Amino acid sequence: MKTPKLPAICIVIALAAMAAGLRAQVLTATLTLHADEPGPAINRNIYGQFSEHLGTCIYGGIWVGEDSPIPNVRGIRSDVVAALREIRVPVLRWPGGCFADEYHWRNGIGPPAGRPKMINTNWGGVVEDNSFGTHEFMDLCEQVGCEPYITGNLGSGSVQEMMEWVEYMTSDADSPLANLRRRNGREQPWKVRYFAVGNEAWGCGGDMTPEFYADNFRRSNVFLKNYPGNLLYRVACGPNSDDYAWTDKVMAIAGKRMNGLSLHYYTLKNGWNDKGSATEFSQADWKATLAQAMRMEPIIRGHEAIMDRYDPARKVGLLVDEWGVWHDSTPGTNPGFLQQQNTMRDAVVAALTLHIFQEHAGRVVMGNIAQMVNVLQAMILTDGPRMVLTPTYHVFDMLKVHQGAARLAVDLVTPRYVDEPAPVPLVSASASRAGGRIHLSLVNTDPDRPVRVVCAVTGARLGTVGGTVLTAPTMQAHNTFDDPGAVRPSPFTDFSAAGDVLTATLPPKSVAVLEITPRG
Questions:
Q1: What whole-number distance in Å separates Cα of residue 423 and Cα of residue 348?
Q2: Most buried of 16, 103, 172, 268, CB within 10 angstroms?
Q3: What DSSP assignment string belongs to 74-93?
Q4: What's the rounded Cα separation, in Å, for the pair 265 and 299?
Q5: How far apart are CA 370 and CA 512, in angstroms?
Q6: Is 322 a catalytic site residue?
Q7: CA atoms in the 13 A half-sphere facing the CB of 273
Q8: CATH number of the domain within which 342 lies
Q9: pLDDT by residue (tens digit) across 191-219?
């Protein structure tokens, strides 16, 4: 962060001291928002989604078939599409995940009745009938209004298979593959910008060494063609969490041939063997989860430093294309389906993580939360014809105002809520400016105590201010099909303005967004 400007921070500290004297029981954080110091644009794709053939993410969550009594357009649920359009989903990753490492795209085209079945060996051992394939996915993206992000099969597939998939999707030539697409119902080629060469090559994607993967990426890259009107953004498989050696090797060998490098990091309460319940947890569990979520920041910073050595011009983007909270599966469900509920704890983690991505907007160009519907930290849960929006959905809805906006410099002085194993600030803040409006998003990580935020705005004069807040009576609060509105945003009014200083009191365990329309 930049060095605070002395006059503004002095005002903030003085006001904070006065406020503290009046109501000493309320903790205080001070903030200087530099409205006249725009930074890099916050890439819309930071708010991306991930949909894998896993559990009921695709089947039941997105795809119900044209004959379903559930309202749909060409087999795709209308209620889910409407909800996703509302949060302005910018990009959607598919078909996996580990499923992509065994997926052969030709099995998912042509008349559905003739598509061969396969066993989904990674997720529950169920039979995949391939009724949702390339054409259905592209239709979904067009209905939602988002860009497709395709993961190619490097693990069990071939370079030729990926090469031909790109041609099938994006070529307008009078060629066998383009004509096959036409016979299957799509005359014009699709625009496919984002294409990943493999998934988790260090694990389910082939248990490769970084050197072996990097050489395979170089080889594959030669055959992934840019057909007229379509320019591929080639994504290399990056590290698992804090595996900095992987990043170093892959960047050294293939860095000049890639457009992006992926990163996967999941928030686990106490590691893979102690993920814990999604809804039954203590305050100690809350603290442990938030501390693990905050590890995202030093992990990104560590990979950025390595990437900067090989790519000082920052031409290669970092895509955090799998992230989110991973809890134990809901009791009574197939453990291979990774179905879990979604509480205020998950909402706070989502906001903290999006703030981290925005802080690193110069390198982080995409994020894809896992996963969009019914799996892990989902936006949406479905059960037959019923649908419910999760607290995480509401965070994405509230913070969508940052998409594409210029990040503003913020100087934040806040007490800590947690010291170990990773520091968790009591308050997290991120700001942006677009279209003459400033948006400031804030998080109070303490589940029990309110916190006062005293914010001095420099470079702009405070005008009208409005706000929205997401909170709930308990940490464990969540939305169900019987009570879908238990956790939802409401107007936020607990703030005041004096001169160019804005003072807001955040309720416990809350996410708030303030919209400022400057005067003059």
A1: 15
A2: 103
A3: TTEEHHHHHHHHHTT--EEE
A4: 9
A5: 23
A6: yes
A7: 0
A8: 3.20.20.80
A9: 999 999 999 999 999 999 999 999 999 99
